[in-house]
Design goal:
This protein is mostly helical and 346 residues long. Helix content is 82%, strand content 0%.
């Protein structure tokens, strides 16, 4: 055989380049479906304790347990969350197309008269509403326009999750073999993944549900129209640290005050500040000890990053990516310090 025109070093470099190019093409082709793989990874971490308890400890049939977990994930987690997202988007679109700007302007003018400062113009309000609706329409699912895409993503998610459980040993062995990290780094990344998913899926979902119920009940008691819808909005807003549910009950209280319903407005503010916000802090302290703790700044920045890239799934994926970045920075710092330290003379 004729000799190669490349040196061994050049062959290795070209091999790496070819792998990177092909990987880039694969990621580009699967770009719109990448959320399916990310969702499978998240569900794998969430449901793995049950899988471990039933398969590895009680020796139940692996395929039966896996199918049961997939059905549970579909019926209890995926479909309700998707239905809630679709209902929210459709109602937001309804309000955007049927709300009279003059009504919003009337409320804003009352606020201006009370504080003595003019800060609104009708054109600016109209532009802001259109921009907000456009931004949300790109990040919340629309069943009428993307039913096929949604079906493919869910199918890909469940299909991937099935093989992650059925071939778990081979899957974990492949991660340890092909990821370019040391065993201690892989262990650190695994702990970070578990901690983040627990905090932002299990913990945050529970906190958001409690706050949404309290917000909806508060608005219903004080006769705010469409309290159920605003309770759903509060569920998603609660994923955002610090801001969260005040973005829902705060404007409701202001609306009541501008309508001269002072008692109702003050009541919403008092319950929001004293009960809803404090129950958030209390639950975070309790859950942080049990299922993981993520700094609120990481969660806030991660949510902003994730929603812009991954849509509604970015509420979880965004903080995860940011946490991984911080973990890898720590690993780099540790490895760099280890290699930079001078060797002791023998």
């Amino acid at each position: 055989m004729p000799d190669s025109i490349y040196t061994p070093r050049q062959q290795r470099v070209l091999l790496v380049v070819c792998l990177l190019v092909l990987a880039g093409m694969v990621l580009f082709g699967l770009g719109s479906y990448i959320t399916g793989f990310l969702g499978a990874g998240i569900l794998y971490v969430v449901l793995r304790p049950w899988f471990t308890a039933l398969v590895h400890r009680r020796r139940w049939n692996r395929q039966v347990v896996t199918v049961g977990l997939l059905v549970f994930a579909l019926v209890v987690i995926i479909l309700p969350f998707t239905a809630l997202s679709l209902m929210l988007f459709n109602r937001i679109r309804y309000y955007a197309t049927n709300t009279d700007i003059s009504q919003i302007m009337a409320v804003l003018h009352v606020i201006e008269r009370k504080i003595g400062v003019t800060f609104t113009a009708e054109q600016n309000v109209q532009s802001l509403v259109r921009q907000g609706v456009g931004w949300l329409s790109q990040r919340l699912p629309s069943l009428a326009s993307s039913l096929l895409h949604f079906t493919v993503v869910i199918g890909l998610m469940l299909f991937t999750l099935y093989f992650m459980y059925v071939q778990e040993e081979a899957f974990l062995r492949g991660l340890r073999r092909y990821l370019p990290f040391r065993p201690d780094t892989l262990h650190e990344l695994g702990d970070s993944l578990k901690n983040n998913v627990n905090a932002n899926v299990l913990g945050q979902a529970l906190i958001s549900l409690v706050q949404a119920v309290l917000t909806g009940l508060t608005l219903w008691v004080f006769q705010v129209p469409d309290a159920l819808f605003w309770g759903m909005v509060a569920f998603f807003m609660a994923f955002i640290p610090v801001l969260g549910t005040p973005l829902v009950w705060g404007p409701a209280a202001i609306l009541k005050l501008t309508q001269d319903h002072t008692g109702q407005g003050v009541g919403i503010l008092l319950i929001g500040v004293i009960v809803i916000m404090n129950i958030d802090n209390l639950l975070r302290i309790v859950l942080a000890r049990r299922i993981g703790d993520i700094h609120p700044l990481i969660t806030l920045a991660g949510v902003i990053l994730g929603v812009d890239i991954f849509g509604i799934l970015g509420l979880v994926v965004g903080p995860l990516l940011l946490s991984y970045f911080i973990v890898l920075m720590r690993v780099f710092e540790r490895e760099n310090r280890l290699h930079a330290s001078p060797k002791k003379p023998e």
